[in-house]
Every structure is written in structure tokens, then in C-alpha cells.
Amino acid sequence: MNGLMMNMQLSIASIAEHAERINGDVEIVSVMGNQPRHRYTYREAFARTRKLSDSMALWGLEQGDRIATLAWNDYRHFEIYYAAACSGYVCHTINPRLFPEQLAYIINHAEDRYVCIDPDFVSLAESLADQCPTVQAWVIMTSAEAMPETRLPNVICYETLVAAGNEAFQWAPLDENAACALCYTSGTTGNPKGVLYSHRSTILHAYAAMMPDALGISQRDVVMPIVPMFHVNAWGNPYSCPMAGAKLVLPGNRMGDGQFMATLINEEGVTLSAGVPTVWLGMLAHLKASGEDVASLRQIIVGGAACPLSIMEDFDHYGVEVRVGWGMTEMSPLGTVNASMDSRESLGEQEFAKVRLKAGRQIFGVEMKIVDDEGHDLPWDGVAFGSLLVRGPWVCSSYFKLEGSDAHAHEGWFETGDVATIDPQGYMAITDRIKDVIKSGGEWISSIEVENAATDHPKVAEAAVIGHFHPKWSERPLLIVVRGADSQDLTAEEMLAWFDGKIAKWWTPDAVEFIDELPHTATGKVQKVKLRQMFKDYVFPVTGA
Ligand code: AMP
Fold first, then answer.
1. Ligand 1 and 329: CB distance under 6 A
2. Residues that are catalytic
3. In CATH, what number is assigned to the domain containing residue 451?
4. pLDDT for 283-293, tens place per residue?
């Protein structure tokens, strides 16, 4: 017997309708280059979104057609998110930091029909235009007065488009399984792959993200995503915030500027923010140097890469709770959050530090398991590590246009490519990417654990460990370190001695090399492929071993 409840379809338009009515006076504040901050309310945002949808309706697109964005976190990008999705099109967010060849590949693979670009990216778009035959027009996200000179064919002014629409425009009902957004993984090898989100997956993920032990977003919050809207929908913030009624602060093109981010936090009363570790390192450096505070900030979510303990301890000092989150583009992105159940007092300092560093527990809606090379389940004992598989209603079942031919899908589970342990309480800890794990004499060494221990050294700014050819062990860890600003005196001997008692003896790197900067991907991850290339001719010093 079925239940007798209404079968209403989950849709992005329902977030807009809810926020217009219930959270209409709540603000969205956007940083717009060097201009004064743009401020308006959810009511005004969605009125403009309806006008934009009305104008888009004249483009002659079919349901499911892709409208792409090359844009920063700001109110116009927010409007496109909603106008495209609520109209039944797909908002395809593109990472402008990718290489031009990757950008052209992605636009062509997605068959984007319109591309909306921030004025900052006009010359980038000009360099791509003649390689992108599916694109009918390029929408420049600015006012008629500020339209730049450009060689782009078929240019449309964003504000002219909005002005021409009717704010009484109504969105037609959609199937909840209809696609609403598309984001390509910024894979370091092979071609990028498209993850196609649905209205249903996006709404369920946005609900889950709001939960108290997930991101914990309420109407009392002021949320600033420092994670870009072009990377996994800014971890769902543009959906969760209007749902909850939280004020949204969108930092434009200044996301990498720690000083500016601290000022924004203080001036806008930001309570909650989310970003990758590099962002926080930049902000902490500024806070320490200036003596400034971030008094309104109560919590940050750190994800996208392992979070060093130093970031947590530094934020303890400012009274900010640090929650590690783990996820991926293929998971919308949230999988686990570490909202520690235990306190420093109950565990003692050392144990507490260990628990905090873990990626956290699965949030309701995501299931996980770890398996060995043969696909057998491994125990949740906090020791065994294996390939991490996930499933859930906001986990990708196939990549766009690769339906059914997917190496990542395993009998209803998605293979994340991460290697992890899970402890009896359900805390998952990432020990590696499968391709980065170091195989020394047939045993696995977790590069992340060695990196965490290395970055705890006060003289280390950043560190990475790669597996490097060794004649006896086939691979041994090579540690590559960027010294801190005033720590040029750090030696390899001092560095290696640091590991004593911190990691298993045989995990200690065989050698240390110092460089000025680590190569990073467009989303802030260390590019191990590039590092391996840089050190491919390296020979370990001969020792007695
Ligand atoms: P992306 O799809 O670009 O967001 O990258 C997802 C990958 O980032 C994951 O599969 C992990 O390898 C890595 N990652 C994300 N969050 C964390 C975390 N908290 N700790 C370690 N690695 C992480």
C-alpha cells in the first residue's frame, strides 16, 4: 500500500519561490571588482532571475540545453544558476583557471549553446570562440555602459537581457530527475568528465548540507563561500542559503586575498565560511601579521584537500570551530563532515588532534565502504585501508555522455579513487588518492599522513610526498618542502629527525628536497603528476639501507 502524501516534484524553482516569500528581505552582498559592494535582497534577486528566464525563453533552446558560465562568485552568477535551472536548462559552470585547451574541450563536449562570461574573461573567451562551434552567443555579465570592446561574435549584454524580461514570468513544472547543473571534474590526468546534477539531487544535497552536524546553516547565519561557484556549485551554498534564509556574501574575484577576506568577514558579520586549506593559510598569515580578529566568524568548513592541524590550532586561537569536510564533484560534493562528537577534555590533547584530522562521518544520505584489491569489504577498525566506495541520491551514477561505460561504477557503488580508513565510530580518514599511494616493498605508505606530519613542523609552509623509484623497494617516499617565510635555515636532517615517533619508522621519507613553490591545480590541490615529472630524474642518495 502506498502512502497518501502529495507527490510534489523537488525543484530548484521551489527554493526561489520559498526565498521570495519567506526570506525576501535577506541580503545577498557581492564584491564586484573595484566597484562598491553590490547589495540586494533575495526578493530582488529572484525578480531579476524571472526577468532573465523570460528573456532566455526567446533563445529557442530545448529543455536540457546547456547555458555555460565563466564567472566569479557574484549576484549575476547566482541569477544565472537559477534562471537556467528553473527554466529547464542546465547551468554549466566552467572553471576559468583551466588551460584553454581544456576549456575548449569542455565547452564542445557539453555542447554549450550560450556562454555567460564575467568581463574579466573576455580575452580568454576571444581565444576560445572560433574553436567552439556550438556556442550561439556570448553573454557579457555587465551593464550596457560597461560593455567592453570585443572581437567575440554574437555578443549580448547581460543587463540589457535582464531589463527586457518580465518579472511576473512563471516557471513551468519540471520532473525532479531533470538535469539542472553540470560541472566537469578538474582531473589531473585524462580528459575532464562531466557530472550532471538533477533538481532532486541538488535539493536533497542542499537539505543535508544545512543539517547542524553538516555545514549547520541557519537563518541566523551570514555565509561566505570562498569556494568558487564554478567548482561543485560552491559546495551547495547558493541553494542552502536561500532555503535557510541565511545572508549570502559572494567574494567576487578576490577569493585568494586573505586580507580582503578578513575585512569582508568583519564588515559583513560573516558567521560561516567554506574553502580549501590554501585560502585559510592566506587568511591566517594576514591575521597573525596584522593582529586583526574575525570576531563574527563562528565556524569554517575546510575541504577539497587534507587540512593541516596548524590551521585548526590557529583558528582555535580566534575562537573559530574548524570542521573538515570531504567530498568530490561527483558527490555534489558533500560526503562526510567532521563535527567532532568528542571534546578536547574527554579525549586529551593528542587523541583529540587525531580525531579532528579525520574527514569525518558520513552525513545521512551518503553510504560508504572500504574494499581491498579484490573488492572484499574491509573492517571499520581505523587501521585497515582500502579503496573508498560511496552511494546515495546525490552521488553520480555515470558521467555525462559516458552512460553505461563507466569504470567508476561498481554494482551500485561509485569508486571515489580515494584510499581511506574508517574507525568503529564511523570516522573516515583519507590516507591517499589511489594513484598517489606509495608502494614500498609491496606495502602501502599513506602520502597524506606523512604530509600532515611534515606540515606540523613550524618551519614548513607546505609539503608534498611522492613515491619515487627505488632500486630495492621499488618506491620510497620523497618529501618536497616549501620552507616558511623566515625559515630558510631548515635542513633536510632537521626535517627527517622531526618524524621520529610521529609516523612509522619505515614511512619516513628517504630524502627531502626544498623548492620555492608547489604546483597546484586550478582548484588548489597539489599537482602530484607535475611534481613526479619535476623529480623524474632524481636519484635517492646512497645510504646503507
Ligand atoms: P574535486 O572533485 O575536485 O572536489 O576533488 C575531490 C577529491 O579531493 C577527493 O576525491 C579527495 O581526494 C580530495 N579531498 C576532498 N576533501 C578532502 C579532505 N577533507 N581530505 C583529503 N582529501 C580531500
1. yes
2. 185, 330, 439, 444
3. 3.30.300.30
4. 999 999 999 99
